Amino acid sequence: MQRKKISFTVLAAIVGLGTLLSGCGDAEEVKPKASSSPQSEANKFANKMKISMFNQGTFNAAAPIPPRDEDIQRQMLEKAMNIDLDMMIPQAGQATTKLNTLIAGGDIPDLLFLKSRADLAQYYDQGVLADLTPYLDQFPELQKRFGKDSWDATSYLGKTIGVPGYDNVNGISRSFFIRNDWLKKLNMKVPTTPDELFEVMKAFTEKDPDGNGKNDTYGFIGGMNKEGNLQTYGFDSLMWMFGVNPPSAIEVKDNKPVFLFIDPKMKEALAYINKMMTAKVVDPDWVTMNTPDLLDQKLFKGKVGFMIRDARRLEPDYQQKMKEIGGEIPEWIVIPPMKGPYGDQIVERKSFQGNSWAISKKADKEKIIRILSMLEYLFTDKEAYPNFAYGIKGIHWDVVDGKIKNKTSELSKEMKEKYLWVDHYRMPRRGDDAEYFSFQNPKTTEAFTNNQQYVGLTLPGNLLTADPSDTLAADRTRFINESLVKFMSGKDPLTNWDQFLKTLDTKFDMQTYKDTAVKQFKEAGLIK
């Protein structure tokens, strides 16, 4: 039976993230050289082996695959592993169809990049994928490369059936932006608690921080996506101050699941946001903010003092847009998230490790070991790392004053386009590697680095897969989202909270969802 992700699971996976390329200038083109790592010079594999790879994990599916004699990364992999690598890049939007066609024809690639845990479980159930559990102890460095939560995501029915695909990027897209120039003018300090934040937002709204004599500023702006979900648009970050989040957030405590979207602390979070609404510190346009671009326009216009936005908005291109649209470049700074009443200080939860590498069940033991060796080399070899994460030495990066310097932002448009294909190999880049992004503003790097300490662990609820018999799942999710919005906006008073919980149980069969969670958490070993 085909599996799909549970409707409550909202993944913040940053799949297909390309390198941030900006700036101009030409770089002298040099002839790339293959790595001289000990592993590649003293190859431990005597017999050359052909490996076919289905790589939908590329960061640029539109980039052509270059000839072997021009493909330095492919040469490195082939030399290090003594293989002939046949890499297939499916066109964007056609990967699932292409892969299913290959499987149906019996032509299963040896190594497959899959974009979701649901796909991983489905193909394993269909007998397509190998169980990797017996082999992983031979690859301790590969095991250490990824955290326990990432490996848990590749486990299914007590077996490890995949290797984490690549790090998701956290600590950048949900940064806490505040107008430091407004704080200075109003003689206020950077807020560190929800109460202090409220007072700052109130002052930003009422005390004319831009000094134009008009009542045209607001303390906060957030929004929700077109499906009515509050995640990723700012309000969810406020909820994290209270240790809760809608509607996929499920924790496991004291050997039982805790559904954070109906936890009593959610009522407190909603009361806090409703307090903001009542005090009119929230820009009333929040109800129309259903795309990131609309929120960016608010940032550029400079009439809001506090927002949850991507730290890359500190980069020169965005600063210029502020100048063009708002007439000035405000002193935006990224601050730590506020520490809530229960000690929570979270900028975001680590994105679920949905993507993975899987190996065909048709591969014999020798081929499985060779592929796992290649993945270990790809993800853990220190000398190889910049050649895959950054690109070609002398073009995309070089060693400057003894340190690696990413030069991508200095390349001309023509050079960038010529080497688009290096995006096929960037998977080993670490999600917290600021050099990979080649930030042009040191403040962006600082914000990204500082945010890492406030990235919480992945919630176990992301491991859940849907119960096909749960026909009320979509309606239940919709009801939860709509109810939370009504509570925080004041359209429904919080005195009706208990009635909300009762309706969930009686009309939307919340117990079925709870039972599914308990069953699957037991299967995953999270509940005894």
From TrEMBL:
Signal peptide: 1-27
Keyword Ligase found: no
Keyword Zinc-finger recorded: no
Keyword vocabulary terms for this entry: Cell membrane, Lipoprotein, Membrane, Palmitate, Signal
UniProt cross-references to Pfam families, sorted A to Z: SBP_bac_1 (PF01547)
Domain of life: Bacteria
Full protein name: Aldouronate transport system substrate-binding protein
